[in-house]
Amino acid sequence: MVKGKRILLCVSGGIAVYKAAALTSKLVQAGAEVKVMMTESAREFVSPLTFQALSRNPVYTDTFDEKDPAVIAHIDLADWPHLVLVAPATANMIGKLANGIADDMISTTLLATTAPVWVAPAMNVHMYDHPAVIRNIDILHSFGYQFVEPSEGYLACGYVGKGRLEEPEKIVENLQHYFNDARSLPLKGKHVLITAGPTREKIDPVRFMSNHSTGKMGYAVAEEAARLGAAVTLVSGPTNLPTPPGVTRINVESAQEMFEAVMNVYPMTDVVIKTAAVADYRPKVTYDQKVKKQPGAVSVELERTTDILRTLGEQKEHQLLVGFAAETNNVDEYAMKKLREKNLDFVVANNVSTEGAGFGTDTNIVTIYQREAEPKSLPVLSKHEVAKEILDEVIKELKERSR
């Protein structure tokens, strides 16, 4: 519940500022006490008077405008909230926060706050995909910031894609979710990286190699990890699933794209849970034009893809690594072999030929393996329940390491 919570809303410039006005109204209606800070560019779109009327509080725009000489405004504001929400967060503001630049009221206050910070980006689709913005978002994740992913659709610039500020109702829902679980957040301050779904290995423009993974298991783990307070990055192959609340999602197609996305985030993560069904092989030659039907048999030569999990194990420093093993026979043998050879902390294995387990179902039957303990076999459970069991083991191990 946001009722009774003090929320500091930081509004940076962009056409999505009008949504921030609606967001202010929604938060106040939900019972939150809201104070608003605005950048100079935000004021070009919507007047501070609008936010003052909606929040029923003064609006702060200038670091040097000290309304009360007895206090330093940006320090007073930094100490005030239960939560800071930056919405909309422009590429410029994200860059400032990631690099410690403090040249306006918002960036100065956020350097001084110890409250949890949530960021709702809004920008052009190409800006959102730019390596500098991706890097800055990764840095903020490493600080423990949480993100409300932008939605996809028609943008003010005329492009169609990802970059729209999420709807105010959805943002409030994310914050409700956060405060509802705030009493028990064992993964708060941890950055969890999760991979999910299949990969697609291109043959030609209309054909590819893939598998039956739907991503349901990985998305369930991502949702539960976020609910437990983690900053969650979800690297996802092609699926039809919505992004879980409070989760940052990176979409990829191929095994190589997934490898690159994972390695980019890996140094800043505490826990990696690799549920994705990544292709072991890809066509050695791909074609720019559709391969036409020919008489007789056609062969496709394959080459190995990079073993993401093995690479993570080789480069492991402080991270806790959880791998998945989808098998059809000799599950115990293959799971323990994977655990040892890839330097993992846990392997979650299942027999995908068993009814109620594997791809496409809403349930799973798994066994959790680790080096110094007996395997933990679970009955048929929903994938969300399996996710909770996995994260319980992860939390126990993290607590053990911190002793």
UniProtKB/TrEMBL annotation:
UniProt GO MF annotations: FMN binding; metal ion binding; phosphopantothenate--cysteine ligase activity; phosphopantothenoylcysteine decarboxylase activity
EC number: 4.1.1.36, 6.3.2.5
GO BP, sorted A to Z: coenzyme A biosynthetic process; pantothenate catabolic process
Protein name: Coenzyme A biosynthesis bifunctional protein CoaBC
Domain Flavoprotein: 5-175
Domain of life: Bacteria
Encoding gene (name): coaBC
Known function: Catalyzes two sequential steps in the biosynthesis of coenzyme A. In the first step cysteine is conjugated to 4'-phosphopantothenate to form 4-phosphopantothenoylcysteine. In the second step the latter compound is decarboxylated to form 4'-phosphopantotheine.
TM ranges: none
Phosphopantothenate--cysteine ligase: annotated span: 192-403
Lineage: Bacteria, Bacillati, Bacillota, Bacilli, Bacillales
Keyword Metal-binding: yes
UniProt cofactor(s): FMN; Mg(2+)
UniProt entry keywords in alphabetical sequence: Decarboxylase, Flavoprotein, FMN, Ligase, Lyase, Magnesium, Metal-binding, Multifunctional enzyme
Similarity annotation: In the C-terminal section; belongs to the PPC synthetase family. In the N-terminal section; belongs to the HFCD (homo-oligomeric flavin containing Cys decarboxylase) superfamily.
Pathway: Cofactor biosynthesis; coenzyme A biosynthesis; CoA from (R)-pantothenate: step 2/5; Cofactor biosynthesis; coenzyme A biosynthesis; CoA from (R)-pantothenate: step 3/5
Pfam families: DFP, Flavoprotein
NCBIfam families, per the entry: coaBC_dfp
Region span, Phosphopantothenoylcysteine decarboxylase: 1-191
Catalytic activity: N-[(R)-4-phosphopantothenoyl]-L-cysteine + H(+) = (R)-4'-phosphopantetheine + CO2; (R)-4'-phosphopantothenate + L-cysteine + CTP = N-[(R)-4-phosphopantothenoyl]-L-cysteine + CMP + diphosphate + H(+)
GO CC aspect terms: phosphopantothenoylcysteine decarboxylase complex
Species of provenance: Priestia koreensis
Domain DNA/pantothenate metabolism flavoprotein C-terminal: 187-396
Gene3D superfamilies per UniProt: CoaB-like (3.40.50.10300), Flavin prenyltransferase-like (3.40.50.1950)
Cofactor: record remark: Binds 1 FMN per subunit.
SUPFAM superfamilies (UniProt xref): CoaB-like, Homo-oligomeric flavin-containing Cys decarboxylases, HFCD
Residues that hold CTP according to the record: D280, K290, F324, K338, K342
Catalytic residues in the record: C157
